[in-house]
Amino acid sequence: MMKTSKEKAKTNKIIKKILLVSLLILAVAAGVVATVGIFRKEGEIFELGFVNSETMRLVIMFLLLLPLLLLLLLIVWIVDVKKGKGAKVQLVISQPATAALSTPQTEAAHSAEGEEERAPRFCMLSRIDEGKRVYDARRYEEETSLKRFCENFRNYAAAELRLYYDIKDIRRFIAGMAVSPIIILQGMSGTGKTSLAHAMGSFVKNTSTVIPVQPMWKERTDLLGYYNEFTKRFNETLLLEKMYEANYCKDIYITVLDEMNIARVEYYFAEFLSLLELPNPDERYIDVVSDVWDTDPVQLKDGRIKLPVNMWFIGTANNNDSTFAISDKVYDRAMILNLDEKSERFVAPRTKPTPITAENFKRLTAEAMQEYELTGRNMKRLEELDKYLISHFHITFGNRIMKQIRQYVPVYVGCGGEELEALDDILSKKIIRKLETQNPVYLRSAAEGLCQYLDELFGYDRMILCKNAIHRLERNA
């Protein structure tokens, strides 16, 4: 049986190694024989003990140098072999990829390299692209109203989840969603902040996504993930996956940033805050990667992902020594809901979930803003209050807060509440909160006058939440 060229080369290589090792052993043995016992010390000079001729000394010196020469030859041979391999690799790569010249081994190598290049770096997002038809088959409940939606949500949470909330808190939560995609739930631990956001996802039949915020978070990659140069894959996060999915789906998506102020919100969430302020949703794209691959998911545009219009970010916040204070930049853009105490249990009827599209929810809130527009009387009251605050405390409403009030109050009324209730709530969180920056001594002296002015302007004890917030700041001043 004839040996192939590859087998012959392998045999020759083995023979060369055996010969070199043999020569190296002989050289070492000769060196040992030449050196052992041939030196003796006479006075201070070393002389050869039994070598009397000059020729013999030269022979022995050669035997001493032979191992070094053979070692040098071995190193040179190894370097040549490696260079030869490199040349062979270069030769294979430079050859034309034709069937006549390629071997099965080279074809397999080229195939493996091609598969690696074509492999997507976004595994989860690519799977969503493959199964996108699933989202088109969903069924929704379109016949509802804001008031019924709030009542059914409260009853569903109580009957199905054993979570009990005051109807006013439910109205505030829904009205807050109508104003801003960012809502902050504040309050003591155990009052049901995370549970409220979870219950909303369950009620609309799209489970809420809970993202536990970590203390070391500082930038958007902590939320969206990053490209791993070693694996050549993108480390996708759950939030990135849900954002990508939401751009295919019509559902309401609830993302919970649990303990959002355990890190600085204005650091890791900065780009989200800025983009969500843009009036045109089609311009809200956030960077994910800096380059573009042919295998990237179809909804990534130049390495950026669109912020979904049907996603709300619900942050839960605790105020203690282990957390950071939330900045005005965040508070001004978000809607705030205070859950300071647990609600009493009540018997609720069995209620089914109400899957509703985000588009229909926004339609209901837009209709409420038109139908229950803020009355002229209360607009006049707000103007008078603004003048009072400017003259006494040097704070003002501002255009953003006035826009939020005009949106929030009508939706709250559409949910079944009263106009002054809504005004009391939003003023306590957006305006009275700004008194925290006042001089403590002056605040204590001016607090009672402000409470009296609220009674004169809106009616006695109609602005309870505002007055409670003023008294709390007065005590802490």
List the helices and strands and how they pair.
Layout: H1 5-35, E1 39-42, E2 45-48, H2 54-94, H3 104-118, H4 123-130, H5 133-136, H6 146-161, H7 167-179, E3 182-186, H8 193-203, E4 209-212, H9 221-224, E5 225-228, E6 233-236, H10 238-246, E7 253-258, H11 265-268, H12 270-275, E8 285-287, E9 304-306, E10 311-317, H13 328-333, E11 335-338, H14 358-371, H15 376-393, H16 399-414, H17 419-430, H18 440-458, H19 464-476
Parallel strand pairs: 3-10, 3-11, 4-7, 7-10
Antiparallel strand pairs: 1-2, 5-6, 8-9
Helix pairs in contact: 1-2, 6-7, 6-8, 7-16, 14-16, 15-18, 16-17, 17-19, 18-19
Q: Can you walk through the features of this model?
A:
The protein starts with a helix and ends with a helix. The protein has 19 helices and 11 strands. Mean pLDDT is 83; it is low at 1-6, 39-51 and 81-116. By secondary structure, the protein is of the alpha/beta class. The protein has 3 domains: 23-88; 122-357, Rossmann fold (3-Layer(aba) Sandwich); 372-477. Helix 1 (5-35) runs antiparallel to helix 2. The protein has helices at 5-35, 54-94, 104-118, 123-130, 133-136, 146-161, 167-179, 193-203, 221-224, 238-246, 265-268, 270-275, 328-333, 358-371, 376-393, 399-414, 419-430, 440-458, 464-476; strands spanning 39-42, 45-48, 182-186, 209-212, 225-228, 233-236, 253-258, 285-287, 304-306, 311-317, 335-338. The strands form 4 sheets. Strands 4-7-10-3-11 form a 5-stranded parallel beta sheet, sandwiched between helices. The protein has a two-stranded antiparallel sheet with strand order 1-2. The radius of gyration is 39 Å and the shape is elongated.
